[in-house]
């Protein structure tokens, strides 16, 4: 009987392994390197402490044509550039150098107490979003040396670039008291727009520290803030064990994903606090309506979709319209999962689609490109923050897989 049980468990493990998606490792770095103007510039940056290789951790990503954008937040001093890209049309080098975007000058921190010379600057960004109108939206926190001696060099702002010309289109500074609270921390940006109406774009900015969502309207050049209980963290699910590091976080609303347009032209926004096992939703008809931001009667316009299951805390999420699947990172499970909103959200319908205890340690961000490739960035961030990464090991990876291959054989397939 024991032999049969052991055989059954072995076959089950093998089946589970085979059922998970096979990921292509596109990039892998021990430490990040940058495309310096010349060797003298690099050496000077190292000497002045402006480039400390071990302090550069990639965190967010998105793709536009032959560019894969990657963010490098200024967690510590010595981050060479907070916004960069790696080319996808060059011969693939798994440890490709980062090219600052839009250029080196925009990514250079002013010395002393001086302010940036122009609106065309990026101090520190966590995530970016490419929209259908060939624009790159950046949430610039303006905060440098976050884990050391934090310095607010410029106020939090939405920064928009024209990707065809690599020029700045707009910098919108969030309202100091209305949008930004004392505990605010903006680490994500989701853009709601269609290609046939580029001027009427909205950006949704989750505030993980201040437990709110700020909405920015490009057409009106205005912003407003929503608050709701669902934006807060769950005190029962703030414990994490990732890559051998145990830590506790109180991060609130974090990941947002846009579902397809309904018959009225609005979408469903799926969202979750990072320290939570629940998934929630709200219609963009609510978020786009500035007058509702201060309405105390909108509580029931927000919906609890359900509980994903044990240890399903999620950072980023993205929606694939063709398969109608919400795809979510799984921090405590070293992987990525999916759920089809046509089915109730519970542990039976929530499926792990990728898992690797080494390559997927802290899956920080995911995106789906126009070819329906699912891009995954993992970066061992807990060890970076609470311990120290080993520069002799691969610490940061970017992997990809076709969405249909990833979700095949799971409940996410309608």
TrEMBL record:
GO cellular component terms, A-Z: extracellular region
Recorded superkingdom: Eukaryota
Record keyword Secreted present: yes
Keyword terms, alphabetized: Secreted, Signal
Short name of one Pfam family: MRJP
Location of the protein in the cell: Secreted
Protein family: Belongs to the major royal jelly protein family.
Protein name: Protein yellow
Residues of the signal peptide: 1-19
Lineage: Eukaryota, Metazoa, Ecdysozoa, Arthropoda, Hexapoda
Entry-linked Gene3D superfamilies: TolB, C-terminal domain (2.120.10.30)
């Amino acid at each position: 009987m024991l032999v049969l049980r052991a055989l059954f468990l072995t076959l089950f493990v093998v089946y589970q392994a085979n059922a998970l998606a096979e990921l292509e490792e596109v990039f892998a770095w021990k430490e990040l390197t940058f495309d310096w103007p010349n060797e003298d510039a690099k050496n000077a940056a190292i000497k002045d402490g402006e480039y400390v290789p071990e302090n550069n951790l990639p965190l967010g990503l998105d793709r536009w044509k032959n560019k894969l954008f990657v963010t490098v937040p200024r967690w510590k001093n010595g981050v060479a550039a907070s916004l960069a890209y790696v080319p996808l049309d060059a011969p693939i080098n798994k440890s490709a150098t980062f090219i600052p975007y839009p250029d080196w000058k925009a990514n250079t921190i002013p010395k002393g107490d001086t302010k940036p010379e122009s609106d065309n600057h990026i101090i520190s960004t966590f995530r970016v979003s490419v929209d259908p109108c060939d624009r790159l939206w950046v949430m610039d926190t303006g905060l440098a040396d976050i884990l050391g001696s934090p310095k607010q060099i410029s106020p939090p702002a939405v920064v928009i670039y024209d990707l065809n010309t690599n020029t700045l289109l707009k910098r919108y500074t969030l309202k100091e008291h209305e949008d930004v609270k004392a505990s605010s921390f903006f680490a994500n940006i989701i853009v709601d727009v269609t290609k046939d109406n580029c001027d009427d774009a909205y950006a949704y900015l989750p505030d993980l520290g201040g437990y709110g969502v700020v909405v920015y309207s490009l057409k009106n050049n205005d912003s407003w803030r929503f608050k709701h209980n669902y934006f807060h963290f769950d005190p029962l699910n703030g414990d994490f064990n990732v890559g051998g590091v145990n830590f506790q976080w109180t991060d609130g609303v974090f990941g947002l994903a846009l579902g397809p347009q309904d018959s009225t032209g609005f979408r469903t926004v799926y969202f979750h606090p990072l320290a939570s096992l629940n998934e929630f939703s709200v219609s963009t008809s609510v978020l786009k309506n500035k007058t509702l931001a201060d309405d105390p009667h909108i509580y029931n316009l927000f919906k609890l979709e359900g509980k994903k299951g044990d240890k399903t805390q999620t950072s980023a999420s993205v929606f694939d319209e063709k398969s109608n699947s919400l795809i979510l990172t799984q921090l405590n499970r070293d992987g990525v999962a999916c759920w089809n909103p046509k089915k109730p959200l519970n542990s039976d319908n929530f499926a792990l689609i990728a898992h690797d205890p080494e390559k997927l340690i802290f899956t920080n961000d995911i995106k789906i490109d126009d070819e329906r490739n699912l891009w995954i960035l993992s970066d061992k961030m807990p060890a970076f923050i609470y311990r120290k990464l080993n520069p002799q090991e691969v610490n940061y990876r970017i992997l990809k897989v076709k969405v249909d291959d990833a979700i095949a054989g799971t409940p996410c397939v309608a």
